[in-house]
Amino acid sequence: MDTRPDETEVSLPSLGTVGLLRWAWRQLTSMRTALFLLLLLAIGAVPGSIWPQRNIDAGRVADYLAVHRSTGPWLDRLGFFDVYSSPWFAAIYLLLFVSLVGCVVPRSKIHWRAMRAQPPAVPGNLARLPEHGQIEVAGTPEEALQIAREVLRRRRLPGGRYRLRSEGLSLSAETGYLRETGNLVFHASLILVIVAIAVGHLFGWRGDRILVAGKSFSNTVSAYDTFDPGPWVDTQGLSPFSVAVDRLDVSFEEHSSGAQRGAPRDFTAYTRTRTSPQAPQIRQTLKVNGPLMFGGTSVFLLGNGYAPVITVRDNAGRVLMHEATPFLPQDANYKSVGAVKVSAASPKQLGFFGFFLPSEYLDATAGPSSFFPDLKNPALALGVYEGELYPQGRPQSVYTLSTEKMTQLKNATGGPLRLLLKPGQTIALPGGRGSVTFDAVQRWAGLSIRYDPGKLFALIGALAALSGLIASLMIRRRRVFVRVEPSGARTVVSVGALAKGEDPGLAEAIEDLLSTIAQRSSTKGSGTKI
Amino acid sequence: MTNETLAQYANLAVYSAMAVFTLAMIAFALDLAGAAPRLSADTPATRKQQVPVGVERPVGASARTSASSSADTEGSTVGAGVPGGDADLPRSRKAAGIAMMLTRLGGLLLVAAAAMRGLSVHRPPLGNMFEFALVGCMFVIVVFVTISARRDLRWLGLFVTGPVLLTLGLAITVFYTDASELLPSLKSVWLVIHVTVATFSVALFTIAFSVTILHLVKTWLEAQEASDPSEMSRVRTIVNTALPPARSLDRTAYGIHAVAFPLWTFTLIAGAIWAEQAWGHYWNWDPKEVWTFVIWVVYAAYLHARATTGWSPRAANYLALAGYGAILVNYMVVNVFFVGQHSYSGM
Asked: Could you tell me if B232 and B240 are in contact, meaning their C-beta atoms sit under 8 angstroms apart?
């Protein structure tokens, strides 16, 4: 990024602290270091795509650690499961960030001066420039120079017109200042993107909520199943909107017979929303790729599943529990796992644990399974436990049963009791423990709610970086010099040019300039002399 | 609903295109093999053209430097106006003409295949690896044919039709997926924007990759020619004659990279916008995102190295090759082996 010449010669003895710091700073902001850091960033990012990452799927990390008992802990210590929040990855991008700032600031100063300066004077020997040529024309040197000036002034290039400077019988022209401007905009915008990401990390939050169709939730921390705030989030000041899901429509591929059979095709949630408790209710549809927006907060539909409605009664027929309980899908055919906890049961609490199967069939080895994700033959397969549901009041997942203080009920032959219920069916529990009824099936919507105040700035930064990049790659920075000398009654015009970076069109531009001058001089000359 | 018949016709068009590209490849190879070293290298006409760069030419001469003129019109400057034997005439390039025609025909077949594939599922054909490969090959050929209309790229033909043929072969056998609808998360206008631009820039990177490899080969051959021309084998001499000068190859490769890189930057931004809409976060270090980023960083380093004094174009070109390696990983390894939200290969 820094275009200064090689800095290694600065490393003389007895630099002192300030000198050493200055030397380190120059090294850090040198173009070679920036290049090295860029490559290091690319290499550093790769492990995160090979090993599972905690921020994406903590379950897969746990599985990996369980399988790789010797290498796993070492990889963990080196941060290979949290690559993008690991200290060494942060070190790379922070150094790159400093290098970026250290490059953009001084270069902007230089460019600011260059933009307001005159083009440099014509060098002594034009033939030493990368592109050059000579031509002899009719007329006086002044006339030839005037023609050259006009030709250059009218030229329009992607980077704008030439800036001209005349000195005696010579002319300097420069164009393409926007190349460097674009380059600086590109680098400065990358800084903006990094800052925007940091803002999103510090002030943003995300919450997830499984919402059964027919229910509603309002945007408070307690309403979420999981809530993950950035360090500087005011959790009391969340936007007070609420969302009710009335219905969730889901469709799956029915017609294809191959691997695509059962692949999801469409999810649509029909919702009623309010921006605040006082605001009017609005009906909106929520789709994948079509989030609901509440100011800066967005509600995404990211998952779905089934929530069987289950009623548990005691021996006298009193309702102990009547609820739609969400089950979590385990495979592509929505074989779902879940738990029903009846804390009102007495003398011992009751717990049901098992599977919901939207299209049930009995697999010879895997037991009750599902052959399609939609409701073709819904059934519940449950085991029953009794005892203490919440030992020592410890928090636990709502989808699993903690069975350490519970015992499984047995059937008549002494094996574990298994219930298979179809919708509308009631089964009496043995030993006068009451009954369980599978009333109906509801769907649930997996909602993810995100707030990221930095995302707009990140987008603006990214688009600005793109336009700066295009300008810096497409615009040519050129300097063209013209010198005229009398040669008898005629004039010799010498032209030389150089460009910064790659400029395959430079030779052609010089040729074009010379031929235009020749053409104009001859027509003008013949007009004045005869 | 998918139209299976139309999808079958699309496959048929792919097979036909493969047959046509095979013929085109053979014709391009024959043309290159015909590039025998010219015995006329010392005729006055060529000597005049070989004025070194920077030497002042006579007053009134063309200002055009010899390097650029001999680069752009390779083959045609020789023997102009000089009477003499067959060696001085421009060599006949009938085979290359046939090859170019076949390449255009193959391109049309690929356009037809992509269109029929899209029509059979009522969506852009950008939903799985087979379709990316098909559309990517189509873009490669379209770009090659379009640039060929303005510049002589016959020397590149073999190195474009070859990779295309290989990719199509892999696509129709290994990557093949039945025509079907998309997952809900892929149903968005951003599919068209993000994936089309991604595929197009990969097509450009592919052509640039071929040119970069040729540049390395040519640099090596030129060095050999300069040190000991008599020791060069016949094959090397032919390749050396058939290819444009290394300087010109390098410039072509850089030019294509300079167009492809902003397009890849756009791919990254469009992908982030889409991810924000579909998944709720614009960047989540999903394996596909990681590799898109790695590709971006490596090519950024390439452009950076080009602007850094002290890095030779040759060293920078190795970075470009590494960038293409990352593209191949992103397409073939990440889609199939890494678990992430971009797992849509259908395999």
From this structure: yes
- Of A360, A372, A342, A366, residue with least CA distance to A422: A360
How many whole angstroms separate alpha carbon A496 and alpha carbon B54?
A: 10
Q: Which of residues 240-269 of A touch B (CB under 8 A)?
A: 253, 255-256, 258-260, 263-267
Pairing of strands A242-252, A170-175: unpaired
Say whether residue B21 is in contact with chain A using an 8 A CB cutoff. Answer: no
Instruction: Answer yes or no: do A495 and B272 touch at CB < 8 A.
Output: no
Contact B308 A48 (CB under 8 A): no
Q: Residue A201 carries which side chain, given as an amino acid letter?
A: H
**Alpha helices in A56-128, H assignment, sequence order:** 58-67, 71-77, 87-116
Contacts of B259 (CB under 8 A, 6+ apart): B204
Q: How far apart are CA A194 and CA B163, in angstroms?
A: 38
Instruction: For residue B76, give the DSSP letter.
Output: T
The complex scores an ipTM of: 0.83
Cα A492 to Cα A126: distance, rounded to the nearest angstrom = 13
Report yes or no: A265 and A252 within 8 Å, Cβ to Cβ.
Answer: yes
Dist. CA A299–CA A245, nearest whole Å: 12
Rounded distance between C-alpha atoms, residue B252 and residue B241, angstroms: 18
Give the one of A6, A48, A291 whose C-beta lies nearest to B277's C-beta: A291
At B178, list the tokens: 């039945």
Write the pLDDT tens digit of every residue in A280-327.
999 999 998 889 999 889 999 988 999 999 999 999 999 999 999 999
Three-state SS for A335?
coil
Q: Is B56–A127 a contact, with Cβ atoms under 8 angstroms apart?
A: yes
Nearest CA-CA partner of A141 in A519, A481, A487, A480: A487
Q: Which domains does chain B have, with CATH numbers?
A: 1-38+93-181 (1.20.120)
Q: What is the pTM of this model?
A: 0.84
Domains and CATH numbers, chain A: 8-107 (no CATH), 118-176+476-529 (3.30.530.20), 201-304+448-463 (no CATH), 306-445 (no CATH)
Size of interface A-B (CB pairs under 8 A): 185
Q: What share of chain A is helix, strand, coil (3-state, %, to 5)?
A: 35, 35, 30
Burial class of B294 by CB neighbour count within 10 A (0 to 12, 13 to 18, 19+)? buried
User: Rounded to an integer, what distance in angstroms lies between the CA atom of residue B124 and that of residue B117?
Assistant: 8
> Whats the size of chain B, residue-wise?
347
Is residue A203 a contact partner of residue A465, using CB atoms and an 8 Å limit?
Answer: no
pLDDT tens readout for residues B47-95: 334 434 443 344 443 433 333 333 344 433 333 333 444 444 567 788 9
Question: Contact A154/A142 with Cβ under 8 angstroms?
Answer: no
